[in-house]
Write a structure and sequence with these properties.
3 helices; 68% helix; 0% strand; mainly alpha
Length: 53
């Protein structure tokens, strides 16, 4: 978890306006494998408190 929190801190330092909702807008795919991976990533972003937007 420490590594994920450090990655969030570094990522938000690079782009302080980054939000989960902005990421969701650019991810458009009907591929089931992609969608499973996307949900997993979103869960991780929520766990480390990336802004929802």
């Amino acid at each position: 978890m420490d590594e994920a929190l450090a990655a969030r801190k570094e990522g938000l330092a690079l782009d302080p306006t980054f939000t989960i909702s902005r990421l969701k807008k650019v991810w458009l795919s009907d591929d089931p494998i992609f969608r499973v991976g996307s949900r997993r990533l979103m869960k991780g972003l929520h766990l480390v408190a990336v802004p929802e937007g």
